[in-house]
Amino acid sequence: MNYLTKKVSKLAPYVAGMQPREQGWIKLNTNENPYPPSPKVAEALRQADLTDLRLYPDPVSTSLCRAIAEKLNVNAENIFCGNSSDEILALAYQAFLSGKKNVLTPDISYGFYPVWGKMYDVDLKCVPIGDDFAIDAEDYNDANGVILANPNAPTGQALSLAAVEQIVQSNTRGVVIIDEAYIDFADCESAVGLIDKYEHLLVVRTFSKSYALAGLRVGFAVGSEKLLDGLERVKNAFNAYPVNRLSQIGAAAAIRDEAYFNAKCAAIIKTRKRVEGVLNCAPAQANFIFWEVADGSKMYAYFLENKILVRHWEHPRIRNHLRVTIGTPQDMEEFVQCAKKF
Q: Which CATH superfamily groups domain 6-36+258-341?
């Protein structure tokens, strides 16, 4: 007997990048940071009072919200913390998009967007990106909601702040969600500076990439108090304590170490630009490259045989592209040498 509901039976779940269980792999497939977290994270966790783990955590992550607000120069009341940006995006789908038609998103973007659309009964309209993989702000008008990754993934291209604002201005009937998972590696400005002007704008960020805390699963949203109230309503309808005590402590320590953060982001960008030059691939605005090859499937299999993990999709428009996370300089040298042998 099939005990699943009809909706769940029809879901095509998001497929994450392969996670090897043995040593010896060069892992360039999930956009993790190649460097360890700030040493101040380890120090903060060492100093944490573990006897407090018997208590539930602060349900609204007060100290972490304040640390984020200080970094972004916004009010703490405009910060919402969650157990990863994915959780926050799922909450946003439920709070602002569920049951709506004509919600716009690019046809090539983060693979979770259409999954959440099916899960939460959102009638997503996938807008084709250009032949050059660019998103055109003119294509996003008068919708009941918009969700965009900026920079986009897996293409690595970014919209200017002016283009993002144009989209926000053109869609006042619904919430515009800007997923800025990779913004710290981009030349463009964050949309956080627009939240005071537009109460229907929600900017979502993560500690997984630029802060090297993928293992802690911490994300945050920046927006009007009206939008954050919606996120709180949904969160408190099923799990009022999503961010654990140690994650709150570690993330707060990470965001306060500005010097370490800047140095590691700069190192990743430097390595990315060097690899782009060697491979002659299109510039990216993220901690990965989007590399066009003659045969994506064969190239992917070749790297796999050589214990190098990259990301490949069979989507017709991008099947001959590979998304390659920027690793350490040594990782990328081995990757480049392997590519040259192929």
A: Aspartate Aminotransferase, domain 1 (3.90.1150.10)
